[in-house]
# Entry
Amino acid sequence: MMPAVLALVSAPPVGAGSVTPADVVSVALAVWCTVRLLRERERPLTPEAALVLGAPVVGIAVAAVTSLDADASLLGFVRYLQLFVLVPAAMVLLLRDGRDFRLVAWVVVALAVVQGVIGVRQYQTGTGASYVGQNIRAVGTFGPQDVMGMANLVSYGFVVAVALALALAPRASRRQRCTALGAAAVLMPPLVLSFSRGAWIATASVCGAVLFLAGVRRAVAVLIGGFGVGSQLVAEWVDSIGRLAAGPDRSVTDRYTLWDAALGIWREHPVIGVGLKGFPAHRDSHASLALSSASDTAGAGSGFRRQPLLSPHNMYLLVLSEQGLTGLVALAGSWAAMLVLALRRLVSARPHGLDAGCGLIAVGLLVWQAVDFLYADIGGPSTVMTALVLGLAAWWALADAGSVRGSVSRALPKSAGPAELDPPLGHTCFESGVLAR
# Structure
């Protein structure tokens, strides 16, 4: 069912509302998992997992109960519960082992490649979303109303592909490594052509983190000596970033103004915020005259449309303004705990027979999401993808050791003895990265 949710991520909303097929299937996934758990009492969450995954409920519930707009808060409560609690918890319970994890990871890469190819074609033919007066922005099938959808999916695929390539054992199939690196190279152009500064910054941050965790020597050998692709694309990527950063557009001014408005709202309601989905109602009374009334969207098969600015385009500031410090500590604390636990498990992966490749993917996705939320927030059909990514990371960080135990031994040569398969924990070496031994 999880591949089905992924496949439906780019499907348009149902009717005139904002509910997408991916939303429907993801909720069905969570409900089915809950029913099975209650009926069979099979593989319940560990106390640690229940605490980490359940922490966001505190801030969400308080903000919903104290809001003056009950209808909007109820919708917000359901949405936050779906994205940050139910779907990630369902992923933790339904993924059986590292093979299931890798299957979902490869599906993410495949979907990212498909969307990326469509996006590049849009740029080449001038059929993309409008950007600086031209229909050249790559958005895939997400359209201009979810302009960040393709950028997010392509970024996820790129992170997963790089992690898969670097985490494969030295004697692993050359075909797998070449496939992963080839996918990463294919995903570079659409990432550039998405014209998303936030996605670029987040991806660059993850590349640095993944290279360190995988070991500098292994990374250099794989990326340069082992395959040697993408150098020209990287140069074009950096050049594009420099050109666009030198001339910020109107959206940059609007974003900074929205950030100031969110901080102003929080200062007046520091503990519990103004309630879920309350930012739009309080925005204008805290924003300066520099803020536009709406953003313009067009292209990619859609006509001109004025899209209202309903969020500050910063997840942390959105939570701070609507849920106050209570919600931010609960939600961001949950993500921070997952990252710490994921890193701890990754450090001891090899000695304990765990699939370090899954860990490298999970940590990479968590770091990417944490950085990207500085420039983006939830919204649009692609939001379900964020829940699935958090679910993958949560499985690695929080699932019991028995299910996380992967197939490391099958990746090692048959002549490897017990000492090589299960060295002491202290044998892990940070000098060349946590995956080096």
In short: The longest strand covers residues 302-308. Residues 2-11+18-249+313-404 form one domain. Residues 315-347 form the longest helix (33 residues).
